[in-house]
Design goal:
By secondary structure, this protein is of the alpha/beta class. The chain has a single domain (2-210), classed as Alpha-Beta Barrel (TIM Barrel), CATH 3.20.20. Helix content is 44%, strand content 16%. The protein has helices spanning 2-6, 22-31, 46-56, 70-79, 91-99, 111-119, 135-143, 164-168, 184-188, 192-210; strands at residues 10-14, 36-40, 61-65, 83-85, 103-105, 107-108, 124-127, 152-155, 176-178. Strands 5-4-3-2-1-9 form a 6-stranded parallel sheet. A 3-stranded parallel sheet has the order 6-7-8.
Length: 211
């Protein structure tokens, strides 16, 4: 699964308030060429939304974000998510996902947290909150000592179309997470065509880095 994630430079970070929006949202992403999604566990609708996307679009890489409790972790595994993410690094959560053979990407923002992740066999970590934690310059310096060990990052928080390639250009960055691809307001207003257009724009932008 990690290899599959590494092929996808942009991961949409989604907050769903109404589970009925799950399928049309996923369809909007797919129409834009994006077959990966991170649905955060911040709302009561998240478990049903994850289940509905899993059933309707099995071809999507289904991620669950903001997994911060044991109940949320169990829900993710029961749903059959492709991967999980969290804003922080909880050893119990990491171990639970590993025991269930499911990729987990915990959040870090210090060298000590990176080394804690390495000790647990992790080499893909979420740099969060990227913008508030020092942005591109911080990640460039933070990640450099660990790059030879194969550590890679998915910065999330404060990213947008204008700065996404600054992150993707860093050798230690494999993917980025972005909430601007489908905002809560756009989802609530069912602006599916707008979301599809934003996805296409982001993927075209990301392609510039590898061109």
């Amino acid at each position: 699964m990690l290899n599959e994630i590494l092929k996808r430079p942009v991961i949409p970070v989604i907050v769903i308030d109404d589970a009925n929006d799950a399928e049309p949202l996923a369809e909007a992403l797919l129409k834009g060429g994006m077959d990966v999604i991170e649905v955060t566990c911040r709302t009561a609708a998240a478990p049903e939304a994850l289940a509905r996307i899993k059933k309707a679009f099995p071809e999507m890489l289904l991620g669950a974000g903001t997994v911060v409790t044991s109940d949320q972790a169990k829900m993710c595994i029961d749903t059959g998510v492709s991967f999980g993410l969290a804003p922080g690094l909880n050893p119990d959560t990491v171990e639970f996902f590993q025991e269930n053979n499911t990729l987990f990407i915990p959040g870090v923002m210090t060298p000590s947290e990176i080394e804690a992740g390495l000790a647990m066999g992790l080499n893909m970590l979420k740099f969060f909150p990227a913008g508030a934690a020092g942005g591109v310059n911080m990640l460039k310096n933070l990640g450099a000592p660990y790059a030879p060990l194969g550590v890679r990052f998915c910065p999330t928080g404060g990213l947008n179309l204008d700065n996404m390639n600054d992150y993707l250009a860093l050798p230690v960055v494999s993917a980025i997470g972005g909430s601007w691809l489908a905002t809560k307001q756009q989802i609530a207003e069912k602006q599916w065509n707008v979301i599809t257009a934003q996805v296409k724009e982001a993927l075209a932008k990301a392609a510039e880095v590898s061109a």
